[in-house]
Amino acid sequence: MKFAILIALTAVAAAAPQNGYSLPDPSTRGVLEAADVVPILRDDRVQEDDGRYNFDIETGDGITASESGSPDGPEGAIVASGQFSYTAPDGSLIEVTYVANEDGFQPEGDHLPVAPEFPHEIPEFVLRQIEKAAEEDALAAASTRDAPSQLYQRPQ
To answer: For residue 137, with 0-12 CB atoms within 10 Å meaning exposed, 13-18 middle and 19 or more buried, which class applies?
Structure first.
């Protein structure tokens, strides 16, 4: 029995981390590294009973975020707007403002790609063809709406 306990203790000791945990070096205070803890400088949050909310956050490494929202969307969906910013690895400041509503998440920022302008005007004959197709679709939908469906009727 003593031998089994000795083997178990040896296994536990062998499985323990070999490098241990060390405290940060005080001489590097103020220099943030990937493994350092980043302090939260500001974390203000307000949640109202009617569903409205807002928050404002700032961290020690320069990240900021703020958002406000309310249940003003269709069927009480949350409509929100806000901003966040941080420093990219290359040192540039990234700033994003956004709105999130029934049209989806709509970010804006100088660093975000923008679709190029349409290269040319749409020719008139194409616009007429699109209009004609829409009229034909509307007529087809109206005629099938008024007529009984032949799809699921019993044979006579």
So the answer is: exposed
For residues 133 and 113, the answer to whether their CB atoms sit within 8 Å is: no
Going by C-beta distance under 8 Å and a sequence separation of 6 or more, which residues neighbour residue 57? 40, 42, 43, 44, 63, 64, 65, 66
C-alpha span between 94 and 113 (Å, rounded): 13
The residue to which tokens 């040192």 are assigned:
91
DSSP string for residues in 5-35: HHHHHHHHHHHS-SS---PPPGGGTT---TT
Token pair recorded at residue 32: 């943030």
pLDDT averaged per 10 residues, the chain (length 156): 69 60 55 72 94 94 94 88 93 94 92 81 91 91 65 54
* Cα distances (angstroms) measured from residue 88 to each of 3, 71, 76, 93: 57, 33, 36, 6
Dihedral sign (CA 76, 55, 82, 33): negative
Helix and strand counts by DSSP (H, E) for the chain? 2, 6
**Distance from first CA to last CA of the chain, Å, rounded?**
88
Q: Which residues, in sequence order, are CB contacts of 52 under 8 Å at separation 6+? A: 68, 69, 70, 71
Backbone angles phi, psi at 65, to 5 degrees: -155, 140
